[in-house]
Amino acid sequence: MSSWARLLAAGIAVGLMTGLSGAWSAERPRVGAAPAEPAAKMGLGREALPEEIAAWDTDVRPDGRGLPVGRGTVKQGDELFQERCASCHGEFGQGAGRWPVLAGGQGTLRADRPDKTIGSFWPDLSTVYDYIRRAMPYGNARSLTDDEAYALVAFLLNLNDIVKDENFELNDKNFASIKLPNAEAFFDDDRETSEKKFWNKDPCMRNCRELPKVTGKAISVDVTPDGKSGPKVD
Amino acid sequence: MRDKSRADLVNRRRFLSAASLAGAGIAMTRGASATDTTKPDPLITEVQDWQRYLGDGVDKRPYGSPSKFEKNVIRRDVSWLTASAESSVNFTPLHELDGIITPSGLCFERHHGGVAEIDPAKHRLMINGLVEKPLVFTMDDIKRMPRTNRIYFLECAANSGMEWRGAQLNGCQFTHGMVHNVMYTGVPLKVVLDEAGLRPNAKWLMLEGGDASGMNRSLPVEKGLSDVLLAFAMNGEALRPEQGYPLRAVIPGWEGNLWVKWLRRIEVGDQPWQTREETSKYTDLLADGRSRKHTFIMDAKSVVTSPSPQAPLKYKGRNVLSGFAWSGRGTIQRVDVSLDGGRNWQTARIDGPVLDKSLTRFYVDFDWNGEELMVQSRAIDSTGYVQPTKDELRKVRGVNSIYHNNGIQTWLVHRNGDSENVELG
């Protein structure tokens, strides 16, 4: 590199550095605990109308907030399910082919191959209602009525042995009282305490372990694309 | 790109330090050339077509595309992973990339209801819930707000998820390709929330997509007010449809599933919604049957992209080992590389910008004597977190968590230069 080119390069580097420290590494203020004074309004956007909010705000929370008034029985749900869901999820929610399994699996969460379903894994019934009404049936989302969604959730409770009576009616009044079996098994992210040892000031650099031995190879599983078939993965 | 012409340009000092990494007593051999170097090269002595005839004119490709010789540089999927292509994933070809920016067309895709194609004139963003005034914005409204440019990585929490039980897929594209790094242009979410006015009991936000999956996720309001962006551009141009055109959330350092695409609504509430994507999925099942939830942050991670199964070593002698490191907690402070399966480590050379919550590029310029290598990399971030081995991770997380596998990857490089994904014990 000629000397002027080197100078130029150094100049660019310095320019970059100062640019970077200004634009990139400056700590932006934490605004989480924002002061009470309201920010100046830009006057952009317009007020959302109640009909518009009602059209999009279909979400349901575990405490039942957001549930529409409505009802449906296990029996009604069974009929609907066979007609609109079973082609993918199977007659009993067992999953056709590789489509998702919706029932069963209780007691498998500590097994070698856990089966995570509404009955075995999901913590909240509200999720079933919220999700079915927003995303199912797959490819024809938001085509179910509120009552149909209640009936389907009731049937899924029945498929998962949480409700046994096929005349059971699920509605906005009794919904929040139904608890799913695995509800208590979830806890907030604790990595910064339970995995504290991964913060290590002095990671080993020399002679850190015994001579390593190869104990497994991807090639023996042979599931990389271009290969033929593979196992089912969630 | 043979060593012969390159060798003289190499910085001598770096050459020596790298040589010591490869182990004492390794001869600095020149790379074996494919052609006979005693005869003149016809590519030089004979006039080639492209040197004689005119090439295409300026308007041949109004929107440019890569050279036809790069046709293998594409996203690839693993068809057995999912039941349908509309709820599936493909992978960034990390082994073909350099620098830190992922070209927009190579950013991996993950959809739950296919790619929504939305006319920006027909897109609306609604803010409702615990706000002073629920609002509706058009894309034009959003583009009149103050905007900012930031480079961030996006990693799917399930990246490397197939590898929990042992080596499965041969190629960093498949083991690590659910990550990309993009410069976003967008409006800080805080600007939009301020416009609606948060009520004092606002604690959580729910982000919702306008696609056929209606993707919804809960986000703590503090995160929403700190560095979250509503992005309409990536790498200088409009978002690609598969990345959420015309509007997506950017949640720096946090798992990709939170970065809701085709963003149409943000609801403000006082507790999380417990949506399907934060209960049935994106919770981490541990060996004792309990599950971690709200594991938003992506732990520090790295991978060597070359050599790797899709990027074999072709020559003895000079070679460039390269890879990416990243952390959801801050910047990458250091990357160590081992060529002997984690027995001995040497600090790699970081090159290019080192940015907060961005991919960071590292290199080791080394000489290969044709011996078998067990290549690993280990990221250390600005909080002092050291990327753990896969076994260390399995001890605390079991093998059924699917998500958040940031363990150290090993590539076994054979004497013929091919490498494969292996598990060490």
TrEMBL record, chain B:
Residues 1-34 form the signal peptide. InterPro entries: Ig_E-set, MoCF_OxRdtse_dimer, Mopterin_OxRdtase_euk, OxRdtase_Mopterin-bd_dom, OxRdtase_Mopterin-bd_sf, Sulfite_DH_SoxC, TAT_signal. Keywords: Metal-binding, Molybdenum, Oxidoreductase, Signal. Residues 112-274 form the Oxidoreductase molybdopterin-binding domain. Its cofactor is Mo-molybdopterin. It holds the Pfam family Mo-co_dimer. The keyword Nucleotide-binding does not apply. It comes from the Bacteria. GO terms for biological process: sulfur compound metabolic process. GO terms for molecular function: heme binding; molybdenum ion binding; molybdopterin cofactor binding; sulfite oxidase activity. Residues 295-409 form the Moybdenum cofactor oxidoreductase dimerisation domain. PANTHER family: SULFITE OXIDASE, MITOCHONDRIAL, SULFITE REDUCTASE. NCBIfam families: sulfite_DH_soxC (TIGR04555). This is Sulfite dehydrogenase. It comes from Bradyrhizobium neotropicale. The lineage of its organism: Bacteria, Pseudomonadati, Pseudomonadota, Alphaproteobacteria, Hyphomicrobiales.
